[in-house]
Design brief:
heterodimer, A: alpha+beta, Butyryl-CoA Dehydrogenase, subunit A, domain 3, 3 domains, 4-stranded antiparallel beta sheet, B: alpha/beta
Chain lengths: 382, 263
């Protein structure tokens, strides 16, 4: 049993931490207050290899392992959860399914663009009426000669505004549920795809969230991802990896809140002493640190299992569930330690508090994670 | 072009420094060590010359086994090779001793240009690069802030920031250059670069290999360290009480009578 990161993971951590400190941290508050897509930072992140981290170098990726991936994502989220959202979606939800399920031609066409920052990806699964119940989705795909014609509306699509490559799930067969679903690689340049309503959010503001409208969108047959009817499997496999990225995001947000709260507690004086000298504050800090470490260990275990090539669905759900609830709890305590100063925008903890909430919702709510975990516990007992 | 870059591993400038109780050096247990910032700029300069003229960038350093971490940073930035001179006989070497070791190892390598940081952030001597040029018998340009190569790569025109102006020098290659931080912006090691750096072997040579031994260690040092001491602790500040008028009067009287910076 070895609880140390390997040398290469520590080097990735040091590199991304330094990158985040220099390039992201000074702009993190501004990116929240006046959200604009941080294209300059994304281009620099791409030069480092952060946009296609686990994709092999042959396809333009950085060829890193899943542990490096979560370590890097934590560092990015520590600086700006909004910026990390943009990056983790491109990696986990777009590069990954193309690499695992794409044809050689699809990999060669799309992965170098997505890894180099020339393109950005988005993931279109959720619909206005189908969130947690994603496998009941209604977007329709009909075959016409060598094309598929897609009709439907996708909701809450991260990167929807800036992305030019979309993974879209649509119903290609009459079978109910997952078996009737197929996945497609849809370019924004294809006729019939457009961006719908752009949402205004509580947090992660520099990443765009919008509807993607498919109004008879014409997709070449060569852009079907995987076999017809395997879209449900592709979606769920992809979300296992996505949940690692969200667990890392939650750990990064929580760590940011703890670091700020500890520094504040050591300096803020009340009743003639620092508030860190009061046990009430010490207990909060101790509980915050303990939960963060537990969340990080769950995250690393899930990443390690993925690296070993074993099934890690349950562990990814546990990591995502525990890390996101930890982020919410820890940022809540951090605001409390800051008192009134925690509630105003001059200090970063209110941003962490707002950013944390999404981690309990997207890529499977906490309730769905519990369903996944429980299903694994009950397997074989029915 | 055969490009040599000299690297030193130093304490992170953001790390708190503890001095050993006997004043003989700094206590490096648990201390974060990094590549000297100026050497990152030297490495970047070397990589840009390679991009322009082709060839290889070889990193050299002198020090303990752990210096390999700093060399790996340079390899991850994109350098081709790294070589470490590591030998207990070198303990206590002064700046001239280090320069002699570097000269001896660089003589064994093809070199069109040798690039060093202007100084190292740990002891600020700015000596090794200049001394190295003398030992190698090469022309030198120190503290360069701008570098322009001639088209054939046979020499460079460099700018040095001097008091009140810019000094422009033409330097024929092979030469030793030491660089300012304003010369360039070092690249981050890319993640694939980190992976490649990890797999690369870093050769280690001893002083004996280089035909050096007794003439470079502590016994040969012309300067010896008497002791290191921490800077005096900062005194607590004084807070002036009262309304604005009273406070301004109190501060002016302090600046006149105690600090004596106003008359």
């Amino acid at each position: 049993m070895d609880f140390q990161l390997a040398d290469e993971h520590r080097m990735v951590q040091a590199t991304v931490r330094e990158f985040a400190r220099q390039e992201i941290l000074p702009r993190a508050a501004a990116l929240d207050h006046t959200p604009v897509f941080p294209s300059e930072i994304i281009q620099k992140a791409a030069a480092l290899g952060l946009m296609g981290m686990v994709i092999p170098e042959a396809y333009g990726g950085a060829g890193m392992d899943p542990v490096s991936y979560v370590v890097a994502q934590e560092e990015l989220a520590r600086a700006s959860a909004g910026l990390q959202t943009i990056i983790t979606v491109n990696n986990s939800l777009v590069c990954d399914p193309i690499f695992h399920f794409g044809t050689e031609d699809q990999k060669r066409r799309y992965l170098p663009r997505l890894s180099s920052g020339a393109s950005l990806g988005c993931y279109c699964l959720t619909e206005p009426a189908y969130g947690s119940d994603a496998m009941s989705l209604r977007t329709d795909a009909r075959r016409e000669a060598d094309q598929w014609i897609l009709r439907g509306t996708k909701a809450f699509v991260t990167n929807a505004v800036e992305a030019d490559i979309c993974i879209v799930y649509a119903r290609t067969g009459p079978q109910p549920g997952a078996r009737g679903i197929s996945a497609f690689i849809v370019e924004k340049g294809f006729p019939g795809i457009s961006v719908g309503k752009v949402e205004k959010k509580l947090g992660i503001k520099c990443s765009s969230t919008a509807e993607i409208v498919l109004d008879g969108c014409r997709v070449p047959a060569s852009n079907l991802l995987g076999e017809p009817g395997t879209g449900g499997k592709i979606a769920l496999t992809t979300l296992d990896g996505g949940r690692l990225g969200i667990a890392a995001q939650a750990v990064g947000i929580a760590r940011a809140a703890l670091e700020e709260a500890a520094a504040y507690a050591a300096g803020r004086r009340q009743f003639g002493r620092t508030i860190g000298e009061f046990q009430a504050i010490q207990w909060m800090l101790a509980d915050m640190a303990t939960r963060i470490d537990a969340a990080r260990l769950l995250m690393l275990r899930a990443a390690y299992l993925r690296q070993q090539g074993t099934r890690y669905t349950r562990e990814a759900s546990m990591a995502k569930l525990f890390a996101s609830e930890t982020a919410m709890w820890v940022t809540h305590k951090a605001v409390q330690i800051f008192g009134g100063y925690g509630y105003i925008q001059d200090y970063p903890v209110e941003r962490y508090f707002r950013d944390a909430k999404i981690t309990e919702i997207y890529e499977g709510t906490s309730e769905i994670q519990r369903v996944v975990i429980a299903r694994h516990l009950l397997e074989g007992h029915a | 072009m055969n490009i040599i870059v000299c690297i030193k591993q130093v304490p992170d400038t953001e790390a708190p420094i503890r001095i050993k109780a006997d004043g003989s050096g700094i206590d490096d247990t648990g201390l974060t060590l990094v590549m000297n910032y100026y050497d990152e700029h030297a490495t970047e300069a070397g990589l840009r010359l390679r991009e322009q003229f082709g060839g290889t960038v070889t990193l050299v350093s002198v020090g303990a086994e752990r210096v390999k971490e700093a060399l790996r940073t340079g390899l991850a930035m994109g350098a081709d090779d790294a070589l470490l001179v590591s030998d207990p006989a070198l303990a206590g070497a002064d700046h001239l001793g280090i320069a002699r070791v570097l000269a001896a190892v660089i003589r064994t390598l093809p070199h069109d240009v040798v690039i060093c940081g202007k100084l190292s952030t740990d002891d600020n001597a700015a000596t090794v690069g200049a001394a190295l040029a003398e030992y190698l018998g090469l022309p030198q340009a120190t503290a360069i802030a701008h570098l322009e190569m001639d088209g054939a790569g046979a020499g460079a025109v460099v700018h040095r920031e001097v008091e009140g102006g810019v000094e422009v020098l033409a330097v024929p290659f092979p030469a030793v250059l030491t660089v300012e931080r304003s010369l360039n912006e070092p690249r981050y090691p890319s993640l694939p670069g980190i992976m490649k750096a990890r797999r690369k072997e870093i050769k280690t040579v001893t002083a004996e290999h280089l035909g050096l031994a007794a003439d470079v260690g502590m016994a040969a040092a012309r300067a010896t360290l008497v002791r290191l001491s921490p800077p005096p602790a900062r005194k607590a500040g004084r807070i002036v009480e009262g309304d604005a008028d009273q406070a301004v009067a109190a501060i002016i009287s302090f600046l006149k009578d105690e600090a004596k910076v106003l008359s």
